[in-house]
Amino acid sequence: MNRDAFTVGLIQMTLDANPEANLKKAAALAERAAKDGARVICLPELFRSHYFCQKEDAGYFELAEPVPGPSTEAMAAVARRHKVTVVTPLFERRAPGLYHNSAAVIGPDGGVAGLYRKMHIPDDPGYYEKFYFTPGDLGYKAFDTDVGRIGALICWDQWYPEAARLTSLRGAGILFYPTAIGWHPREKAQLGDSQVDAWITIQRSHAIANGVYVAAVNRAGLERPAGGDGIEFWGNSFLCDPFGIVVARAGSQGEEVILGTVDPCRVETVRQGWPFLRDRRIDSYAGLDKRFIEDA
Hints:
46% of the residues are buried. By secondary structure, the protein is an alpha+beta fold. A hairpin with a 2-residue loop joins strand 8 (142-145) and strand 9. 25% of the residues lie in helices and 29% in strands. The chain has a 6-stranded mixed β-sheet with strand order 5-4-3-2-1-17. A 6-stranded mixed β-sheet has the order 8-9-10-12-15-16, covered by helices on one side. The protein has a 3-stranded antiparallel β-sheet with strand order 11-14-13. The protein has one domain (6-284): 4-Layer Sandwich (Nitrilase/N-carbamoyl-D-aminoacid amidohydrolase). The chain starts with 5 loop residues before the first strand and ends in a 23-residue tail after the last helix. The model has no long low-confidence stretch (mean pLDDT 96).
């Protein structure tokens, strides 16, 4: 296991309706992170477009792309040039009529080192993802990079402790969560602060429970691809350490490239003090594969 500290770069973006312009901007921000010393760079969920899942419209399937494809090729150029790893979220066209919300891990050689397909697919007002995305079928994975093993999960996955646990058990020392989450503007005054606090808290809890770093990478800005009020994405991208301490955090508005240090030795030190993996009662967890236990 790599034991040298390294820098991660989290790209918080504002997006518009032009996929090519978004891709060009993402590549430029990834270049900036690499030049500032980032060894692993993560972009936000579905960064090539507005968050189109605010409505059900078959026309948006035209945004989907294969792997490899335009997004992976653009980030492969950055990865090769700077010898970095880039977590590249995309709308994956797997086959005609079969689409996933995915994240490709692009290695320093420009190759696709791994692919994760979002497992938990929401269906809520303004987040009609079940219309577009087939649930992932690759499972929870950790990917080998030149700085160690990393995990990639996506947005709605971040609320599920099972996903964080299984990815951590595969050896990931840091969990990346590319994200598109925000407020319905009419709810912001009443619920805004508590929603952001819950979002940060659940991810800090994954870091603590598993003794890993967690990096959440959100978009920012108000988007109205479906008209109406739209969604105001709340930014607040952050990195926290295995003790849950937030070591880097973006603001709630606008684009930012935030950098944070990941120290693999910190993972081991925290796990020595809080040996949750040692004390897990794996003989007692029958039932976690059930939707609900009726005789509880």
